[in-house]
Each structure stands twice: as structure tokens, then as C-alpha cells.
Design a protein that fits this description.
Layout lengths: L1 H26 L28 E17 L25 E15 L4 E9 L30 E13 L2 E9 L7 H5 L8 H4 L5 E10 L6 E8 L13 E10 L4 E15 L2 E15 L3 E20 L5 E20 L3 E11 L9 E5 L10 E7 L5 E7 L6 E14 L2 E13 L7 H4 E16 L12
Antiparallel strand pairs: 1-2, 1-19, 2-3, 3-4, 4-5, 5-6, 6-7, 7-8, 8-9, 9-10, 10-11, 11-12, 11-14, 12-13, 13-17, 15-16, 17-18, 18-19
Length: 470
């Protein structure tokens, strides 16, 4: 208690002294006023609230087709890999074919499973291709394409894959049925008019998608430099048919704020590999384009090295040699604005040579063994019965050497976003490389007039977007 009493007395003395000092400062007119004290208020840190990830997905798709009329048909029905080979033209007895058709219907779904994983499913329905391509020697065969036996369109699974994002920095791992690095992820987008025609590599059926595993990466944050590598079955949507796998890869670079684009692509696959026949296909392809919202100019060229592909028959003796071959192609295109967001134009020229290593001084005929790089040709015979029934028969000429020149041009009218109507001309010329041929047997053409319609529906946001917007 004594200690408490002393403490209270000391506290009382301190209070008295403090009051005295304050009174002295107030009454002393000569005292210097105290400097103001700045008060700094430090806000309390706001805790970061991270949005919780919610799995989501969206449905999307597009459709294109045409109203067309076949104005002229090649007399030998050449160009088996082309859209209108074998379709009768106005120069054929019975008149040219005029019709409406769908050429592609896409229905896709993209699902974000988690921050790291995205799944993609894409269904496609397309016409048989080529729709009028005649069978060899008149034999009845099932047309290549997606139509059912009764001619109706049917969906099949084109893409079904799982994407693991940033498996390491800047690189995604994709497993399943996925686009190859060939053209669908870059060059087709810059061409922009798949609804009018395939790219030149696509016409030759360079695989655009396959079942396998792929790495898709970027070397920088802006995506100016990147790569894609893949190993797959080489059979697209069909099951693996042998022990050979296909290898694909490309690297790309974009300069001048991504207006100038370069891409280099290569692939390799074995077609046959027995002791007496090593048959393989290996493509090298380069692409360059300058693209802006107003104007795009581009070129794509390839050489397809076909090892032991040609069966060449000697003029003297008739024996057959197996030769290496190289098929080459070059496409040059341009498209641009006439009226912004309403009216555009497009044009393209392709040059294709299926056989660049012919020796007509030694051999009289050649037969290729890689589908879609060696199109056949057919002699057409049209007969009319007394009852007025027209029948058409075909016989193979065996000429697969002919060069092909493709030209298309047209206008693109867009009355609303994602809706397009495109009047265009489709032209393909064929010129044989065999000696001694004249007239239409040497050179002839297909000519089609079309109005193409194209529309996109649903949320456009596929992992590898279909349409490139410069």
C-alpha cells in the first residue's frame, strides 16, 4: 500500500507540471508557435480475392455451300482431286449440271475443364469429293466422302482432343484427334476463303488433322515466333492401318507488328516398306504473306518428294521401272476490302505439276502410287437409247502426267457479321506432259459459276480459330 501511495503522488505531480507548461505556452505572447504535424494515413492492404474457376463451354459451328452451274467439262474428266471433276458441263450431251449443295457443315463444342485443361469436339458433314469423279474403267466403287450409301450427309468425328495448357512455359500438349501443323492453324486462316476453295496443300490431301500427340508452342509472349510438332497415325479420322507413323512439324515467324508472316513446314510418312519396295512421302512447304485489315497478299509453295513412287513403262521392251518422283505446287492469292465490313474481293492462282521427273525419251507411260498426288483421267462415252435414256461410261486413259492450273476470283458481300454471299468463278485447266498429244486430249478445262454462302453460328472461339481476321 505504501508503494501505491508513492506512485499516486508522483502521478499527481506530473499532471500539475504538465498543466503549468500548457498555461505558460498559452499566456506567453512571445512564444514561438509549434510547427504543424503532418499526419500520414496508411491504408490497410486489401486482401486479393481470386475468382473461383468455374468449368464452362460453348457450342459453335459454321456452314458453307453453293448454288452452281457447270459451264464446261474437261473431255477426259481429269482432276480427280478437284471439286467438280466428272460433273457434266454444258458441252456434254444432256446439258450442264446446275444444283445447290452443302460442302461443309461444322458443329463443335469447346469445354474449359479447368485452368489447365480444355477439351474440344468437332463434328463435320461434307459432300462426297469429288462429287462426280468417275470410277476407273467403269467399275462400280463407293465414292470417297462423308455421304451415306443413300447419298445423305452424315456427321463424323473430325476432332476430339484434350489440351494441357502450359505444360511448360509457352507450350501446350494436345492428345487425341487434332489439327496437324500442315495448314489449318495458320496458312488457311490467312487465305481466309476455305469456303471458296481448299489451300493448295489441302487439295492434294496433305493431312489437315490426325490422331496422335502434338506440342504447340510459342517462343515469346506475343506469339511472334512459334512451333508445332506432331506424331500421328497418318490416317486422319480412320484407325491406324499399319505400323507406320506420320511426323509433322512447322516453325513460324511474324514481323512488322505481325503483318509479315513466314511459315516453314515439313512432314514424313512411309507408304510401303518391304525389302523390294521402300515407298515414302516427304513434303517441304513454305508460306509467306503480308496481311492487313485492308489488303492481304500471300504465296504458298511445296515440293512433295515421293520415293519409289512412279511405275514407268519403257517405250522399248515394255518393262517397268520404279522411279522417284517429286510433285510441286505454288499458290498465289490476294484479298482485300472494297467497302469496309461490307464488300471484299479475292483471287487466287494455283500451279500444280504431279510429275517433275519424267523421261519421255525412255518411257511411254507413268503410274503414280500416292493417292491425290497422281490423278487419273478417263475417256468419256455418252450414248442415248431409243427411249431417250442417256448413259455415260468411262475408260481410263492412264495419263496421270497432266499439269493443273487453277484460278478462282470473286466478291464477298457481308450483309451482317458472320454472314457472307460470294459470287465467284471456279476454273481448272489440264495439260498433259506426254508427247504427241493434240487437241482436247492434250489440254482441256473445267469451268463452274457459283454463288457461295457461308455463315458462322454460336460463339466463335475454337482453340485453333477457323477464320483468320487480319
Amino acid at each position: 500500500m505504501k508503494n501505491v501511495s508513492i506512485s499516486l503522488k508522483m502521478l499527481s505531480v506530473a499532471l500539475v507540471l504538465s498543466v503549468g507548461v500548457v498555461k505558460a505556452q498559452v499566456t506567453d505572447s512571445t512564444a514561438i508557435p509549434a510547427a504543424p504535424v503532418a499526419v500520414v494515413v496508411v491504408p490497410a492492404p486489401v486482401p486479393e480475392i481470386k475468382a473461383e474457376f468455374k468449368p464452362s463451354g460453348h457450342l459453335w459451328g459454321y456452314t458453307f455451300g453453293d448454288a452452281f452451274t457447270k459451264a464446261h467439262s474437261d473431255s477426259l474428266n481429269r482432276g480427280g482431286s478437284n471439286q467438280y471433276s466428272g460433273v457434266p458441263g454444258n458441252n456434254i450431251q444432256g446439258g450442264g449440271k446446275t444444283a445447290f449443295q452443302f460442302r461443309r457443315i461444322y458443329l463443335g463444342y469447346t469445354a474449359d475443364i479447368s485452368k489447365k485443361f480444355t477439351a474440344e469436339l468437332l463434328l463435320e458433314a461434307a459432300d462426297n469429293f469429288a462429287s462426280g469423279n468417275p470410277p476407273a474403267n467403269g467399275a462400280a466403287v463407293t465414292p470417297a466422302g462423308d455421304q451415306t450409301a443413300n447419298g445423305k450427309l452424315a456427321f463424323y468425328i473430325k476432332l476430339a482432343n484434350l489440351r494441357w495448357k502450359n505444360i511448360w512455359k509457352g507450350t501446350d500438349l494436345v492428345v487425341g484427334q487434332v489439327y496437324t501443323p500442315s495448314f489449318a492453324m495458320l496458312t488457311e486462316k490467312i487465305w481466309s476463303y476455305r469456303s471458296v476453295e481448299r489451300t493448295i496443300a489441302d487439295i492434294r490431301r496433305t493431312p489437315s488433322y490426325d490422331m496422335g500427340v502434338t506440342l504447340q508452342g510459342k517462343f515469346d509472349a506475343k506469339g511472334n515466333y512459334g512451333y508445332n510438332v506432331m506424331v500421328g497415325n497418318g490416317t486422319s479420322a480412320k484407325p491406324a492401318q499399319n505400323n507406320f507413323r506420320s511426323f509433322y512439324g512447322d516453325v513460324y515467324a511474324k514481323f512488322l507488328n505481325q503483318h509479315l508472316v513466314f511459315d516453314v513446314y515439313a512432314d514424313y510418312t512411309r507408304e510401303n516398306w518391304v525389302q523390294t519396295w521402300h515407298h515414302s512421302r516427304q513434303m517441304l512447304k513454305a508460306f509467306v504473306a503480308y496481311t492487313t485489315p485492308k489488303l492481304t497478299i500471300g504465296a504458298e509453295g511445296f515440293i512433295n518428294n515421293l520415293q519409289k513412287d512412279l511405275f514407268a513403262t519403257k517405250t522399248v521392251g515394255g518393262t517397268v521401272d520404279t522411279l522417284n518422283n517429286a510433285a510441286t505446287g505454288l499458290a498465289i492469292f490476294v484479298h482485300g476490302n472494297i467497302i469496309k465490313e461490307k464488300l471484299r474481293f479475292f483471287a487466287r492462282v494455283d500451279l500444280y505439276n504431279p510429275m517433275t521427273k519424267l523421261n519421255n525419251g525412255v518411257y511411254k507411260s507413268y503410274a503414280g502410287n500416292t493417292g491425290n498426288y497422281n490423278d487419273n483421267s478417263f475417256k468419256t462415252t455418252v450414248a442415248t437409247s431409243p427411249a431417250g435414256v442417256i448413259t455415260t461410261t468411262y475408260a481410263s486413259t492412264g495419263d496421270e502426267t497432266y499439269k493443273q492450273t487453277f484460278v478462282t476470283a470473286g466478291l464477298d458481300y457481308s450483309p451482317a457479321k458472320n454472314v457472307h454471299f460470294m459470287p465467284n468463278v471456279w476454273f481448272e485447266n489440264y495439260t498433259s506432259q506426254l508427247p504427241g498429244l493434240t487437241g482436247k486430249v492434250n489440254s482441256d478445262y473445267d469451268l463452274v459459276y457459283r454463288v457461295t454462302f457461308y455463315y458462322i453460328f454460336g460463339k466463335s472461339g475454337r482453340i485453333a480459330n477457323e477464320t483468320f481476321q487480319p
